From TrEMBL:
GO terms for biological process: proteolysis. GO terms for molecular function: serine-type peptidase activity. This is Peptidase S9 prolyl oligopeptidase catalytic domain-containing protein. InterPro entries: AB_hydrolase_fold, DNA-binding_regulatory, Peptidase_S9_cat. It comes from Phocaeicola salanitronis (strain DSM 18170 / JCM 13657 / CCUG 60908 / BL78) (Bacteroides salanitronis). Gene3D superfamilies: alpha/beta hydrolase. PANTHER family: ALPHA/BETA-HYDROLASE (PTHR43358), ALPHA_BETA HYDROLASE FOLD-1 DOMAIN-CONTAINING PROTEIN (PTHR43358:SF4). Residues 149-318 form the Peptidase S9 prolyl oligopeptidase catalytic domain. The lineage of its organism: Bacteria, Pseudomonadati, Bacteroidota, Bacteroidia, Bacteroidales.
C-alpha cells in the first residue's frame, strides 16, 4: 500500500472516530436535556404557589385539608431501592371509589391537585397522587417518560388497598407524561379493582415525542442523533424509546378508557390521540376539547371536564359492573 492510501485510511479512520465521538457526546447531551432537565417538579413550594394562582377555586379545599391534617404523605420502596412518595386523601364519606392520579413531565403530585380536587371534592373519592421518579419527594436520577413509571404506579396500585381498604374500585387518571404512563400501565395485568382509565393528552411513544421535539427545537432529523441517544438511554436506564410505547400497550387493554385531548395541542400533537383511540379496543370514549392547548383542558373547562369524567367513570366503578382486563 502506497503512502497516499495509508494517509487516506488514517484520515478516514480519524474522521470516523471523531464523528462517533461527536455523536456520543451529542447523545449524552440530548439525554440529559430530555431526562434530567432543570426540574420544577422538585420545587414543592413553587408548585403549590403555582396551583394556588392557576386554580384559585381549589384553594379552600387545599387549606381545609391542611388544617384538618387530611392531606397525608406515604412512602414505599421500589424493587431497585428507590424511595417513592405519594400524597393521599380519604374521601369525605367512606367509599370504595378511589382515583390514582399521575402527573406529567417536570411536574409533581402537587401540580395534579386540580385533578385531586375533581375526584375528592367534586366526586367524593379517595385520592392517591404519586410523585414519579426525579420529581417531588421521590428519589431517582432521571425522568423515565412513563415506561419505568408504569411499574412504580402498579406498585402504588398494590399499596392502595392497604391505605383505603380492601374493597376499593379504582380509576387511574394521568395528564401528559402521566397519561402516557397510564396507557403504558393499561397494557399490563392489573388487579380486578382497577376498573378504568382516563388519559389526558398523552403521547403515542417516547420515540414519536422525542422525534417531534428534535425537529421542532433543533431542526434535526431522527438519524443519527436520536438513534444514538436511544442507545445511551438503553445503557443508562434499561429501556429504549421504541419500547416505551403507549400505542402498543393500549392494544392489550380491554378495560374502559376515556381519551381527552386539546384541539390546539402542539406539544403532544392532537393527531396522536386519534392514533391511540383507534388502536384501543372497546370500551372507549373520546373528547376533543375546543380551543385548548396542552394539558389545560380542566383549566379551560372545569365544569365540563368534571362532568365528562364523572359520566365515564361512575358506571365503571359501580359494584354491578363486571369488566375484563
Amino acid at each position: 500500500m502506497d503512502k497516499k492510501k495509508k494517509k487516506a485510511l488514517v484520515i478516514g479512520g480519524a474522521t470516523l472516530l471523531l464523528l462517533i465521538g461527536l455523536s456520543i457526546g451529542a447523545g449524552l447531551y440530548m439525554l440529559d436535556f430530555s431526562l434530567r432537565p432543570v426540574n420544577r417538579g422538585k420545587d414543592m413550594e413553587g408548585s403549590m404557589a403555582y396551583m394556588r394562582q392557576t386554580y384559585p377555586h381549589i384553594v379552600p379545599w387545599i387549606d381545609s385539608l391542611t388544617r384538618c391534617q387530611a392531606l397525608r404523605d406515604t412512602f414505599i420502596t421500589a424493587p431497585d431501592g428507590i424511595r417513592m412518595h405519594a400524597f393521599y386523601v380519604r374521601a369525605p364519606q367512606p367509599t370504595a371509589h378511589t382515583a390514582v392520579i399521575v402527573h406529567g413531565y417536570t411536574d409533581n403530585a402537587i401540580r395534579m391537585f386540580h385533578i385531586g380536587y375533581l375526584y375528592n371534592r367534586s366526586l367524593g373519592y379517595n385520592i392517591l397522587l404519586p410523585d414519579l421518579r426525579y420529581a417531588g419527594l421521590t428519589e431517582g436520577n432521571a425522568i423515565q417518560m412513563g415506561w419505568l413509571d408504569r411499574k412504580d404506579v402498579m406498585q402504588w396500585i398494590d399499596a392502595a388497598p392497604h391505605i383505603f381498604g380492601d374493597s376499593i374500585r379504582t380509576v387511574v387518571h394521568g395528564i401528559s407524561m402521566g397519561a402516557a404512563t397510564t396507557m403504558m400501565l393499561s397494557g399490563e395485568t392489573l388487579p380486578d379493582y382497577v376498573r378504568c382509565f382516563v388519559e389526558d393528552c398523552g403521547y403515542t411513544s417516547v420515540w414519536d415525542q422525542f422525534e417531534k421535539e428534535l425537529k421542532n427545537l433543533f431542526h434535526l432529523p431522527a438519524f443519527p442523533l436520536l438513534y444514538v441517544t436511544e442507545w445511551i438511554c438503553q445503557l443508562q436506564n434499561g429501556w429504549n424509546f421504541h419500547e416505551a410505547s403507549a400505542l402498543n400497550q393500549i392494544k392489550k387493554c380491554h378495560k374502559p378508557m376515556l381519551f381527552i385531548h386539546g384541539e390546539k395541542d402542539d406539544f403532544v400533537p392532537t393527531r396522536m390521540v386519534y392514533q391511540l383511540y383507534e388502536a384501543k379496543p372497546q370500551p372507549k370514549a373520546l373528547w376533543i376539547v375546543p380551543e385548548t392547548d396542552h394539558a389545560h383542558s380542566y383549566r379551560n373547562y372545569p365544569e365540563a371536564y368534571t362532568e365528562k369524567v364523572k359520566a365515564f367513570v361512575m358506571p365503571c366503578l359501580s359494584n354491578e359492573t363486571e369488566i375484563g382486563n
